């Protein structure tokens, strides 16, 4: 138990008496600092803490027990009484405590709420993302594909070193400099992005990064284009910052951004997941990328490009990022290691156009000056020696086999009762079941058969299609897939 409720008593200059201790404990109970059922520190703990004799504490305990404030159980200790005989004194102690509580709540905090706080209360943002869904491993890599031994080796080496983090605790507002320098090479080799370390800002999560971007650059009343289905967190961040959202549908070529559609939209922002649309896995086509960049340039529209799951593709050769092909500097690039390395790290990076570096540097220095950790060094080393890229290639081979097996088995055993979408990115496949079964039946049968699926409902801003699911093939060993799908189909047909 925290002994803070006795700190004032401990600070007394004169000798502490049993009467003083009784008064302090009674006051703590009245104020709610000690609640019914709380265990009270032992005679020895209190005598040491207060530097008084055990007999002094014992006399105080005896009096408190006699008053019904404490109860003692042989061999278990002393506790705040659930009901005490002092309840008849509510006219004094309890009433005064209640009066103090009411007084404490009279301060008008609501008048101090910022516009963001007011919108949070009015809009009550509630959304579900893959990170909330245990049925698909929270959207992260299965434990068997985490580079645990390599990570552990580097972290242990750090803790055994004389200096845990090179450079000590010196803070860099945009994040650990060696890690940002290592990321320059990683981004160039894997995403085609040419940038300087000074353009990279590090965050603890993609949500944190997105919130910081909008807090600095977005204005209430502006309009943002988002994907539907798409990452609900992005839509909510725009709304809470006072922006209106325009939701655009997606198909097998990603967000539908034809010239006719764009011509009717007056927007200030676009949030898009071109490398692996969230959640479908569709890749934004080269034609649509060009149309988006041209339109952005003409209408001064800022683009947030989220490369959230851009490490695994199973179709044609991947296309360059929007950031890499943009010639006007209108794109902010966001990437997280969540999908690849959680729970080892959820580190997230933002690549900034050069004109934004100074303002982000100043803001992070005030609000979020990150101190380098052993985990930063571990990730840095995995990037510097090329291990992480080798690891991605190894995992990709396993995922490709698992994806092919899952899609084949589902189609073979369910036939026309299921439609498997041919999207080519990510760690899950999108499927739609026919109307023969309800969503409740599908989820119950999946749970019984250990088929990892989750509905896409929460990703849609408007009406969601019925019986559409993400099948998390990444966690399905191809040697067991046939049996799992058989159990699932059997449960559906016999249910």
Q: Could you give a short description of this structure?
A:
The protein is α/β, with parallel strands linked by helices and 495 residues long. The chain has helices spanning 7-10, 18-31, 43-50, 54-66, 93-104, 115-123, 148-160, 177-191, 206-217, 232-240, 259-263, 286-299, 322-325, 338-341, 357-367, 374-384, 387-414, 439-449, 478-494; strands at residues 39-40, 70-73, 77-80, 200-203, 223-228, 244-251, 254-255, 269-272, 302-306, 331-336, 348-351, 418-420, 429-433, 453-455, 468-471. The strands form three sheets. An eight-stranded mixed beta sheet has the order 4-11-10-9-8-5-6-7, sandwiched between helices.
Which characteristics define this entry?
single chain; 495 residues; alpha/beta; Aspartate Aminotransferase, domain 2; Aspartate Aminotransferase, domain 1; 8-stranded mixed beta sheet; 4-stranded antiparallel beta sheet; 19 helices; globular
Describe the fold and architecture.
The chain has 495 residues and is α/β, with parallel strands linked by helices. The chain has 3 domains: 3-104, Orthogonal Bundle (Arc Repressor Mutant, subunit A), CATH 1.10.10.10; 118-387, Type I PLP-dependent aspartate aminotransferase-like (Major domain) (Aspartate Aminotransferase, domain 2, 3-Layer(aba) Sandwich); 391-494, Alpha-Beta Complex (Aspartate Aminotransferase, domain 1), CATH 3.90.1150.10. The chain is 43% helix and 13% strand. The protein has 19 helices and 15 strands. The strands form 3 sheets. Strands 4-11-10-9-8-5-6-7 form an 8-stranded mixed β-sheet, with helices on both faces. Strands 12-13-15-14 form a 4-stranded antiparallel β-sheet, covered by helices on one side. Strand 5, helix 10 (232-240) and strand 6 form a beta-alpha-beta unit. Residues 84-92 have low confidence and may be disordered.
